[in-house]
Amino acid sequence: MKLEGFPQNLTLKDGTQVVVKPLEAKDAPALLEFYRALPEEDRLYLRDDVTKPEWLERFVAHVQHNEVVSLIALHGNKVAGEASLYRALHGWTAHVGEIRISVAPALRRSGLGSVLARDLVKLAIGLGVEKMIVQMVESQLSARRLFEKLGFRQEAVLRAHVKDIHGIKRDLVIASNDVSHLWEAMEALVSDFSPTVG
Ligand SMILES: CC(C)(COP(=O)(O)OP(=O)(O)OC[C@H]1O[C@@H](n2cnc3c(N)ncnc32)[C@H](O)[C@@H]1OP(=O)(O)O)[C@@H](O)C(=O)NCCC(=O)NCCS
Questions:
Q1: Any residues with Cβ below 6 Å from ligand 1, and which?
Q2: Which atom of ligand 1 is nearest to the CA of 112?
Q3: Which of 3, 115, 134, 189 is deepest in the core (most CB within 10 A)?
Q4: pLDDT, tens digit, 9 for 90 and up, residues 120-165
């Protein structure tokens, strides 16, 4: 899938320059390096073991089959952040998109997470997603604040629903953002200005 508007050259709040672009197969080794360098406290709650080449291979295949949209931020030739949009292409949740996001510890609190999340929400609306969700462990306060700022609201708490990598059970918080109104407005705008075909 060709995504419009990329690459984006950005200067973060701390002056760091990054390039945001869709993940390509050639970026896979740098992405693996990024995930392997994350501190254990971040990897504690990741759903998949992102340090394994098998995971990466599957992930790149999902991206190539348009099941996942992945944006990466490059700082030089290193990945500084990654955000993914997961969606079911068929079935009763085909209107729902899920965001997952990670930023390199050294570049946090500089706005990168917000930029990646906003870009993904925008792309999701363009793809027809009407409701966005994010799943976080109750102690992931940075993520909870970030998504709250972007208009996400807590919708459910599943008690003792996830086990961290040490086997300790944690509550899972699901926050959501109904973007269908934005989508309806965009659709109206497009139909207002679409040239007649034929
Ligand atoms: C969550 C995460 C992606 C945020 O990335 P980031 O680049 O630091 O985010 P931003 O700089 O855009 O922060 C946006 C806002 O979120 C809130 N926030 C972010 N980190 C915070 C922290 N440590 N403490 C309190 N608020 C925080 C703030 O309101 C911040 O705005 P401000 O800096 O103007 O006050 C990053 O901390 C991360 O990778 N965490 C580990 C993985 C994770 O929790 N992923 C979410 C599950 S999907």
A1: 42, 100-103, 108-114, 134, 136, 140-143, 145-146, 149
A2: 7
A3: 134
A4: 998 998 898 999 999 999 989 999 999 999 889 999 999 999 988 8
Beta carbons within 8 Å of 120's beta carbon, 6+ residues apart: 69, 71, 83, 84, 85, 99, 101
Edge-to-edge strands of the sheet including 153-163? 8-11, 17-22, 68-75, 78-87, 96-103, 131-137, 169-178, 153-163
CATH number reported for the structural domain that contains residue 91 in this entry: 3.40.630.30
Does the pTM surpass 0.85? The reply is yes
Quick check: 190 pLDDT over 60?
Answer: no
Report yes or no on 40 lying in a domain.
yes
In the reported structure, the alpha carbon of residue 195 is separated from the centroid of ligand 1 by a whole-number distance in angstroms of 42
Q: DSSP code of 167?
A: S
**Ligand 1: which residue has its CA nearest to atom 24?**
142
Looking from the CA of residue 134, the nearest atom of ligand 1 is 48
- Which residue CA neighbors atom 42 of ligand 1 most closely? 102
Confidence band for 197, pLDDT divided at 50, 70 and 90: very low
Question: For ligand 1, atom 30, which residue shows the shortest CA distance?
Answer: 146
